[in-house]
Hints:
The structure is a single chain. With 305 residues, the protein is mostly helical. It is 71% helix and 0% strand. The protein has helices at 12-31, 35-52, 54-57, 91-126, 130-144, 147-157, 162-170, 175-189, 192-199, 204-240, 251-260, 263-266, 269-297. The chain is elongated. The termini are far apart.
Amino acid sequence: MTTERTPAARGPRxxxxxxxxxSALRFWRxxxxxxxxxxxxxxxxxxxxxxxxxxxxxxxxxxxxxxxxGSPLEHPSTRLPFGADRFGRNLLGLVIxxxxxxxxxxLLAAVLSVAIGTVIGxxxxxxxxxxxxxxxxxxxxxxxxxxxxxxxxxxxxxSRSLLTIVVAIGVTxxxxxxxxxxxxxxxxxxxxxxxxSRALGGGHWHxxxxxxxxxxxxxxxxxxxxxxxxxxxxxATLAFLGLGDPTVVSWGGLLQDAREAGAVSAGHWWYxxxxxxxxxxxxxxxxxxxxxxxxxxxxxxxxxx
Length: 305
């Protein structure tokens, strides 16, 4: 006869996973009550599927100029729904393929930005004295400087590649995260269990990693979803200004090609509208998801549904 194990007999690891699953279920139940957040999530899922399936949908030779299926600047038709670019390439295929680069650069740049901001925010909030003062003055300097100007300067000095774009965006957009995380860290440091941990011999690393970081992670998660939209817009802007990698296809690169081809003055709207709408939709979707995540993790924000 088998007996069900009691919660006390399951072990700390099994109980921890059970609590995580219950927390994830509670998060999803609250998140799905936000219609705007669900719309943003569905939009992101669609673009992610298109980006992953791009080699199967349009093929890896979509950017090949020699095998272009249309004539230069061909109007949209049933054969080419989005028309053709100045080289006769299928714009629909280019937009789908560009989702891979734009989403990847946006995600990596946002992760780099949030990682830098979290490390600086947690350490500046935990340690006091000259260390926190120096970090906050550096953060204030980055805050007052125009982010796009700094990113352009870095992208100009460094070689033109996707890594350059990621670094240029990541190292110029972290101050907001650092300020928010530091404020949350200062609030966590005043709680009684932090004093008990210090009294029991807990070191700086133990307190920051086991007590402070888990409490600021919800804020970091919400901030990440919001920064991704800004990173995608920044990538499109840098590529539009000709600072991106010319060998890869991205939405910003397509807009830059359209500008060089004179699509604006010539009235070739199909060259500009599809990549522009794609950038706007993805940025809007991440913003909606970020606001919904903020509302779920902190209901006092009162974010509308």
